[in-house]
Amino acid sequence: MKNKILLCVCSVFAFITVSAQGQENWAQFRGLNGQGISKAKDTPVRWSTEENIAWKTDIPGEAWSSPIVWNDHIFVTTATEDGKNCHVIAIDRITGKILWNKIVFTQQPSQHRHEMNSYATPTPATDGKTVFAVFSGGGFAALDFEGNIRWTNNELDFYSHHGMGTSPILYGDLLLLAVNHSNREEPKSLGFQELWDKSYLLALDKNTGKERWRGTRGMTRIAHSTPAVMQVNGKDQIISSAGDVIQGFNPADGKLIWTVTSVGEPCVPSIVIGDGLIYASHTNRAPIMAVRPDGQGDCTTTHIAWKQEGYTPMMSSFLYVKPYLYTCPDNRVCCLDASTGEFLWQIRLRGGQLNPSPLYADGKIYVLSERGTTTVLKPSADPKEPAEILATNELNALTRASIAVAGKQLIIRTANHLWCIGK
Fold this sequence. Notes:
about 0% helix, mainly beta, six-stranded mixed β-sheet, globular, about 425 residues, four-stranded antiparallel β-sheet, Methanol Dehydrogenase, Chain A
C-alpha cells in the first residue's frame, strides 16, 4: 500500500518548486507542501548580528507571518494601527529594499487573541504571479507582483478565542484555509472548550476570490494547523487537522473522506507527511500520532499506526527526514523512528522555547528559538547517537516566524526586522 500513498510533489506542486531561473522557491508556510525541507546547498552555518548578514530591513507593524520567496521577491504581511491596517509587503531579495508596501484593507481587531499570536500571523502563499494573504479577522487579499490588488474577500467573519494562526495553501486554482474557529456570542466556550460542528475547510477560487466549497468537519474545537496535500491510491487528498481530529478531504468538492479522533485543543503544529503516514498532534499533553490516510469514515480504531507521548511540541511543526521524525517541545530537539514512534534521542538547547518550526537544508537541521537563537545540527549516521551541534547563532531578538530559504541564503523574521543570512 505504501507505494500507492505518495507525497504529492510531482503534479500539483511542481509549479512552486523551481522557478524559470532554476532557483527553488519558498512559496508558502514551510516551503513545498509545508514540509520544512529545502533542496538548497551550501546554506550558511554561522552568523551573528554583524557577521554573514547580506542585509537587514526594518518591517513596520506587528506580525508573526513567516516570509515567502519567489525568485527575487520576498513577501511578508503585517498589521499596523493596533491591528487595524492589513499590509502586504514586497522586498527585493538581492538588496533588502522594500519594493512596495500596500494596505489591502482595514479590519476590526478581535478583543480575544493569545498573547503569542498577532493580527497578521497567517503566512502568505504565491503561485509565482499572485500573492495571497489572510489576516486575523478572516479577510483575504490577492495582489500581483507589482502590488496591484486583484481582489479582496471580507465575507469570512472569523473569531477565535486565540485568534487566527493557520496559513492558506494553494491547490490548482483553489486557495484553501482551515477555518477552525469558536463562538463569537455566548456561550463562548463552544468551539473553544466544548466541541461544536461549525468548523470547516474553506476553498476560494484563486482567480476571483469567490467561495467554491466548504468541507465540514463535524465535532471539533479551535486549531491553527496548516493543511497539506497527499496522494492516496492515485487521488489527491487535502489533509487537515483541527482540535480533536485529523482528516482527509476531497479537493474537488470538499467532501470529508475520513476522520481520526485524538482529543486535545488547540491543535497548533502543522502535519507532515512521509512514507505513507501522516504525523500530527494536538495539545502538548496529547501524544504524537502516525495515521494511515487510506480509510473511509471514522478510522480512529483502524488507521492509527502508532502513538508516542512525551515529545509533543506546543507550537512548532514536525520535521520528517526519512527515516526520522524530529520534534521540538520546549527547548528540546527530539528524534523518533518515523515508522514505529520509538524514541531515539534528544538534545536540550539554549536560547528559549523552540516555537518556530524547524528547517532541513543541505543535510543540516536549523532550529530557531523565540529569542532569535538558531542552532544548526548535523544528524549522526548512528540512529541512537544525538545530532552534532555545528553552531549556535544569535540575533538577540524575539521571533515566532519560521525560517524561509532563498537560494543559498536564509530569511529570518524577528519582531522589527527581516534578516537575510548568507553571502
